[in-house]
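U., I forgot to send this yesterday:
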Amino acid sequence: MAAGIKLIGRDGFAAISIEAVCNEAGLTKRYFYESFSSTDELLIEAYREVVSELMTSIQKATMPHLNNAKTLVHTGLAQTFKFVADNPDKARLMMIEAMSVRSHLGRVYGQGYGQFVQLLVAFTKPFLPGDGPGDIILSVMAKASVGSLIHLCQGWIATDFKQPIGELIEGMERIFSGMAKELGISIW
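Result:
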């Protein structure tokens, strides 16, 4: 799995082969086929693993800040960008390669995307005055936020992380701040 993540993230999914993955892992093809039926299956499982790792890191980092909207947003964004910077192969797999080969990922990609949307909705609901705009509108706003964050990360990865992380966090915080005001979240 680690060899596949590294090669997909570094070279791109279209450039990998079972032989290359086995060479990188120092194993024979027999071991590959004991775990995966194809490189498509490797991609799907690698994507699941990387998304789970990112989600877990965000939840762990934000857990102490669930009662403060501003700190929660800042910490969640900082952890996301830190994960991307610290794990460029995983980030490229998840935010570039997975986007370009969604046909291989199908339902799995939608589930990963949905997990991020659900996390944002869950983070937002406790701060809403009254019932808020409802789950459908919150989901649309969360999807827009996830899309913005993915696009920003894609550009950051493509430029070899040249833009300072603080600027990325501040820009996204301003997007979330505008949404918070629109939702009537006054503690921002």
